[in-house]
Design goal:
Layout: E1 17-20, E2 22-23, E3 42-43, H1 46-57, E4 64-68, H2 77-90, E5 96-101, H3 103-107, H4 111-119, E6 122-130, H5 134-139, H6 146-158, E7 163-169, H7 177-191, E8 195-200, H8 208-215, H9 223-236, E9 242-245, E10 256-259, H10 263-276
Parallel strand pairs: 1-4, 4-5, 5-6, 6-7, 7-8, 8-9
Antiparallel strand pairs: 2-3, 9-10
């Protein structure tokens, strides 16, 4: 397999075959994100992709394939259907293909096109919401509104494709934490994804948000305030059936919960940790990662 640059994938794709079909991110403007900055976005050629698929086909049976890099849904429909068809034809045992996506690329696809991708094996879409607050979405240069996020998420779900979304604790800083929490819970409720994950903001040197932090324009909430955000988002969100996690390397307190059935237990666990006010119960800084 041929990879260009660092490869990023969701925690749930740890055992998947990572098939790089695009290089970089089609948006690549988010102020908090250090990923893909060394890459100029492009869609790999048909020959490059076919070569990797044929190589993978000579391996043992593979259950899951994840399409890298940041946003494979930006690939024109005909080519993406072709790629999915080649995966099913040449790689033994594939039960699910997953990909990152952003709201803009999802909204470029019609409901019928997304349903076609599902028929060709697309089994999960990962969408970074980050926050449900429109002002914060503008500040972090996400390029879409909360309403567009909801429309994109619903379009994926309506096509019968499981939706996994991520939000980022701390994005509101010290000044807009309440708005961030309330609006993020609202957008999660409106989307009602099958899977949701909370990451914790890490300020990475070289990013615009880090520059704001250094200049004093942005204040990162402390560890226990970030846990309070996590508890409040879970408490205020209403899901019909969602597997919610905070098991990303950035998080101070890993949790896994089936919501709504485990909501009360999960929120109680988080608040109990906050009340202890003891960092020994939290993931140490040296073990955290973006």
């Amino acid at each position: 397999m041929k990879y260009e640059g660092d490869i990023i994938r969701p925690p749930s794709e740890a055992s998947s075959l990572l098939l790089q079909v695009t290089v970089g991110c089609s948006h690549n403007k988010c102020s908090f994100c250090p990923a893909y900055k060394e890459k100029k976005f492009r869609i790999k050629s048909s020959d490059e992709i076919l070569e990797d698929i044929l190589e993978a086909g000579r391996w043992r049976s593979i259950d899951k394939v994840f399409l890298c890099d940041g946003d494979a849904l930006i690939i024109p429909q005909e080519r993406l259907v072709e790629i999915l068809g080649l995966i099913q034809t040449h790689i033994k045992g594939v039960k699910r293909v997953g990909t990152y996506a952003n709201a803009k690329s999802i909204l470029r696809k019609t409901a019928e096109q997304l349903a076609q991708l599902r028929e060709f094996g697309l089994g999960i879409v990962y969408l970074g919401i980050e926050t449900g607050n429109d002002e914060l979405l503008r500040k972090i240069r996400k390029g879409v509104t909360a309403a567009q996020m909801v429309e994109a998420g619903r379009r994926v779900k309506d096509a019968g494709i499981p939706l996994s979304v991520t939000v980022i604790l701390g994005l509101g800083g010290g000044d807009q934490s309440t708005e961030h929490v309330n609006d993020t819970a609202s957008i999660l409720t409106d989307m009602d994804p099958e899977y949701a994950s909370a990451l914790t903001l890490m300020l990475i040197p070289g990013t615009p948000l880090y520059a704001e932090y250094e200049s004093g324009k942005f204040t990162l909430p402390d560890k226990f305030h970030l846990l309070r955000e996590l508890a409040c988002i879970i408490e205020k969100s209403d899901f019909s059936s969602c597997y919610f996690t905070s098991n990303h390397a950035s998080n101070y307190l890993p949790i896994k919960a089936r919501l709504p059935s485990e909501k009360e237990k999960t929120v109680t666990t988080i608040y109990n940790t906050i009340r202890k006010n003891d960092v020994r119960y939290l993931r140490p800084e040296y073990m955290r990662g973006f």
